[in-house]
Amino acid sequence: MSLTVGEMIRRDEERRKLMARVQVDECLSCKRLMGEKHVATVPRPTMSELEDIMMDNINCYATDGCDVEQDGMCEHGHQSWMLKMGLT
Ligand SMILES: [Zn+2]
Ligand SMILES: [Zn+2]
Fold first, then answer.
1. Separation of CA 4 and ligand 2 centre (Å)
2. Does 19 score more than 90 pLDDT?
């Protein structure tokens, strides 16, 4: 069985939406409560910064500044900026 690109993108968006919510009582980083959306606590990297991260294949940072894999999220549930911006 194979998925169309459209289906894959939709699944990805759903996953992202799910991941964007706080899964614990209170997020230690952004102080949002369970079920609320995490908010970024650090400024968004510039496109050229993101390009460097991709080119060098190094860890990205999450929307709260934690060091994470490019398509990962940190222990607080914050996604990497690349994931957040749909670049992975
Ligand atoms: Zn948070
Ligand atoms: Zn974090």
1. 33
2. no
0.70 exceeded by the pTM? yes
For residue 1, report the distance from its CA to the centre of ligand 2, in Å: 36
**Maximum Cα interatomic distance, the chain, rounded to a whole number of Å:** 42
- H-helix or E-strand containing 50? helix 47-56
Joined together, the tokens standing for residue 20 give 């964007």
Q: Is 82 exposed, middle or buried (0-12, 13-18, 19+ CB in 10 A)?
A: buried
Angle at the Cα of 65 from the Cα atoms of 62 and 67, rounded to 5 degrees: 65
CA distances from residue 81 to 19, 21, 35, 41 in whole angstroms, order as listed:
13, 15, 20, 12
How many angstroms separate the alpha carbon of residue 2 from the centre of ligand 1? 34
- Nearest ligand atom owner, CA of 61: 2
